Amino acid sequence: MHFKNTIYRLGSTPKLSLKRFFIGMILFAISAALIIYGYLYEALFQIPGLVLLPIALFFALYGYLGIFANRFSQVLKDRSALNRDIF
Predict the structure, then answer these.
(1) pTM
(2) CA of 59: how far to CAs of 13, 62, 74, in Å?
(3) Which spans are transmembrane here (predicted)?
């Protein structure tokens, strides 16, 4: 039951999860651009890129986890409905 509750809680706000995912992807692109710019021109630009990278990955992964949990919770609902019909 604890697993189901966690999945339902994470997947309860799919629009917010999608927003977090897109924010993470945009931050990741900015971070990658800073790292590349720092590699090619000025090395000090790599530091903000490297600081921003874990934040971007956190947002993207947390948003993706919420999207996945929403889809998976729909599968769990369908399976529980099937089990009720059988018994």
Answers:
(1) 0.80
(2) 15, 5, 23
(3) 21-41, 47-69
Whether the CB-CB separation of 24 and 63 falls below 8 Å is answered with yes
**Segment 26-61, tens digit of pLDDT:** 999 999 999 999 999 999 999 999 999 999 999 999
Q: Domain spans of the chain?
A: 15-86
Query: Which two tokens mark 77?
Result: 């609902």
pLDDT tens-digit readout, 54-80: 999 999 999 999 999 998 888 877 766
Return the closest-CA partner of residue 61 out of 10, 1, 12.
10
CA 25-31-37 angle, to 5 degrees, is 135
Alpha-carbon distance 31 to 48, whole Å?
7
Upper half-sphere CA count for residue 15 (Cβ side, 13 Å)? 0
DSSP class of residue 65 equals: H
